[in-house]
């Protein structure tokens, strides 16, 4: 990726590039928000049933499957229904 970070001029616009992840932002506020609130933060996944927190989504899913099977089955059905209806819609455009 060249290791460039800081400000960059693209077609007359000053673009700020995040040195951590390489994302570019055309507006300063969006860039600061990214630096302060988004980038480098570990995403925490919270179990919607018992509020236990997990750093990995797959582990949280296993937890839900094992400890709250009813919830897991219900969510899966909702998801399947949504996928089915999206599929139905895209075919009828
Ligand atoms: Zn970043
Ligand atoms: Zn739980």
TrEMBL record:
Keyword Hydrolase on entry: no
Keyword DNA-binding: no
C2H2-type domain location: 45-68
UniProtKB keywords: Metal-binding, Zinc, Zinc-finger
Pfam families: zf-C2H2
Record-given protein name: C2H2-type domain-containing protein
GO terms, molecular function: zinc ion binding
């Amino acid at each position: 990726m060249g290791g460039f970070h800081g400000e960059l001029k693209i077609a007359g616009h000053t673009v700020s590039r995040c040195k951590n992840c390489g994302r570019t932002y055309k507006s300063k506020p969006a860039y600061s928000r990214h630096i302060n609130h988004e980038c480098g933060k570990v995403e925490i996944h919270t179990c919607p049933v018992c509020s236990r927190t997990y750093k990995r989504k797959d582990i949280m899913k296993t937890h839900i499957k094992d400890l709250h099977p009813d919830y897991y089955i219900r969510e899966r059905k909702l998801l399947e229904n949504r996928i089915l209806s999206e599929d139905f819609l895209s075919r009828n455009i």
